[in-house]
Amino acid sequence: MTETQLKQLLAAITPPDEAARTAAHAHWASLAKPLGGLGALETLLEDAAALTGTPELAFERRAVLVLCADNGVVAQGVSQTDQSVTHAVAQNLAARRTSVCQMARTAHCEVVPVDMGIAGAPVPGLLDCRIAAGTRDFTTGAAMSRQQAVEAIAKGIQLVRLQKAQGVQLLATGEMGIGNTTTSSALAAVLLAQPVEVMTGRGAGLSDEGLRRKQQVIRRGIAVNQPCPEDPLDLLAKLGGYDIAGLCGVFLGGALEQLPVLMDGFISGVAALCAVRLCPAAAKAVFATHCSTEPAARLVLEALGKTPLLTAGMHLGEGTGAVAAIPLWDMALAVYHHCYSFAEGGITPYTPQC
């Protein structure tokens, strides 16, 4: 896919269907309970109706896409582990042994691990969307070419289309890649015009010295590359990772295919922000799940205008936060579909009070 073709594709993303949202709201109001009593559980289904274009909601088939990739900036000592850990965790994802796999089993959610660009030999059992064997070190130049960024986004969109063709109705996002809190912090600092120290956390557990080094590396990467804040493709190419660019495509694909996409934590949030900066109408497909403990997570949520369902101090990655929210969707749907109405209960309906 060329950049021009991508722009033409994104032009097809339509605004939310407000008639479907209104119909879902009216259905909630007909149920025998206080108006708006389930709070965000009600509005998330109204948002889902606006995305899908119908108040007849069904999300029994769900999958979490775990995009795996390596980042050349790891060479600068920004993580306490090396790139071999990405490969090792990817192997365990393929064997369905990792944290998200256990949580997904409970949430009746399929795990789809994807190789977007892992260093070294391909991992059997991962869906092959590999762009290259890891990005370049962004302190010495762009992490990837602009065309590679477009290609990664296109593969993310294609992943959504593939899942929809297989009957999936709800997607969650996840990622795995040593060094990707560095790439996401760098992107967020530029996207939100914030100081690097405000946007950068300890990732998987850096010391104070490690955190200072990570911040210095991000500043150097920004200074070397001079990314354009108004050009998400330039940002992704210069400072991003194949996992983040692919996730950006997943959010865009959700908007194109009218599939809700559950945003995981900080890294997924940065990818969603890139998607919305590329195409503001894509925001309709982004559903926040939790607020990560990464320092910039709440700022990214605020920039997206999204409110998370959970605040549980999570920062594991792999899509665990997104999957943790799925049971809340199930409970909301159970009430939406099966609660008795005011009419059925012989109760005078509540009316809004000013």
Shape: globular
Strand content: 5-15%
Q: Identify the strand order in the major beta sheet.
A: 3-2-1-4-5-6
Number of strands: 6
Overview of this structure, please?
49% of the residues lie in helices and 9% in strands. It is α/β, with parallel strands linked by helices and 354 residues long. The model has no long low-confidence stretch (mean pLDDT 96). Strand 5 (261-263), helix 12 and strand 6 (286-288) form a beta-alpha-beta unit. The radius of gyration is 20 Å and the shape is globular. A 6-stranded parallel β-sheet has the order 3-2-1-4-5-6, with helices on both faces. It starts with a helix and ends in a 9-residue tail after the last helix. It has helices at residues 3-10, 18-30, 40-52, 84-94, 99-106, 146-165, 180-191, 196-199, 208-225, 232-239, 242-257, 266-278, 297-304, 320-324, 326-338, 342-345; strands spanning 62-69, 110-117, 127-128, 170-176, 261-263, 286-288.
Keywords:
354 residues; 6-stranded parallel sheet; 16 helices; alpha/beta; globular; single chain
